[in-house]
Design a protein that fits this description.
Radius of gyration: 21 Å
Order of helices and strands: HHHHHHHHHEHEHEHEEHHH
Number of strands: 5
Structural class: alpha/beta
Strand content: 5-15%
Length: 308
């Protein structure tokens, strides 16, 4: 039964035969999926993301020769990126090339050196944050987002699992939900997360936040919640990661570039926080009759603490 349910959700999420991503989302898809690709597929993905105009002019044979791969690999890469075939990928590449020619992004690298002046650090980090937000927004599946919002808006209770940097994002989401009168708990202790997940049932929601998609301390409580009948959501940078097999809805964040001074565990928070804000605003819209007064009440309750 579980496998059949997961197959249904997989069809709903799209994939081959679904709606191809817009040209603007192509680069974001490449960054997100490249770590899970074979090396030959990575070469194809890196080529199309690095030179969309040049690759758009190539036949499937030409792109295979350029990347030292096979035609079958090129087609498989196109399908993994969300396109029915190579022809659809070429059209997206042409569209992306046209967008880049009309307004190129600033040529700035996010690699931060130990001896960089602080002004360069600010500029590089700002560009990296902007790119992460743009990539996450472009790749976010709004159908999955809407389904998650619906589940949260009607939930009896919401549990959110996250450890490390993702644990901070879990706390941010639960604090937002609490302010509009919804019952929500963030769990970073894996033992407590599992013991509370056992209490969940249909009508409850469990959310796992893990950039890698393979954090065992987050996957385990989500699995328990899934098996108990709760609606489950994964917020992850790896849409093919182990966490998604227990997720009814998958919300993908951008796979931010890592550097020695800024590992993925830190940079991933930007995309995660955007997804959390989208969830919160969506729920607040759905429940505005109660959310509005609850926000006003919480603001009034804290107002005296902000007066000098």
């Amino acid at each position: 039964m579980t496998q059949r349910v997961k197959e249904i959700f997989a069809r709903e999420r799209g994939g081959p035969g679904g709606t191809p991503p817009a040209p603007a989302a192509l680069a974001a898809k490449v960054r997100t999926l490249a770590p899970s690709m074979t090396r030959s597929m990575q070469r194809v993905a890196e080529a199309v993301a690095g030179d969309p105009a040049g690759c758009a002019a190539l036949t499937v044979t030409g792109l295979a020769e350029l990347t030292g791969t096979s035609e079958a690999t090129v087609v498989r890469t196109a399908r993994l990126l969300g396109y029915p075939g190579y022809r659809d990928l070429r059209l997206a590449l042409a569209g992306l090339a046209a967008q880049q020619q009309s307004g190129r992004a600033p040529a700035i690298t996010t690699d931060i050196a130990v001896d960089d002046p602080i002004s360069d650090v600010v500029a590089k980090l700002a560009h990296d944050e902007q790119q992460t937000l743009a990539d996450t927004a472009a790749a976010l599946d709004t159908v999955q987002l809407g389904a998650a919002v619906t589940a949260l808006a009607g939930a009896r209770r919401t549990d959110v699992y996250g450890v490390g940097a993702s644990g901070l994002v879990a706390q941010d989401l639960t604090q937002k939900l609490l302010r509009i009168g919804l019952m929500a708990h963030a769990h970073s202790d894996p033992h407590l997360a599992v013991t509370t997940a056992v209490q969940l049932r249909a009508g409850d929601v469990a959310i796992a936040i893990t950039h890698s998609g393979s954090t065992g301390d987050v996957i385990e409580p989500l699995r328990v919640a899934f098996e108990r009948g709760a609606t489950t959501v994964a917020i992850t940078g790896r849409p093919d990661g182990p966490v998604t097999q227990y997720a009814d809805h998958v919300l993908t964040t951008s796979t931010a570039r890592e550097s020695e001074l800024r590992p993925a565990a830190m940079s991933s928070r930007t995309g995660q926080l955007l997804v959390v804000d989208c969830l919160f605003v969506g729920v607040a819209q759905r429940t505005y009759d109660t959310a509005g007064p609850a926000l006003s009440a919480s603001y009034e309750a804290l107002a005296h603490r902000h007066r000098s």
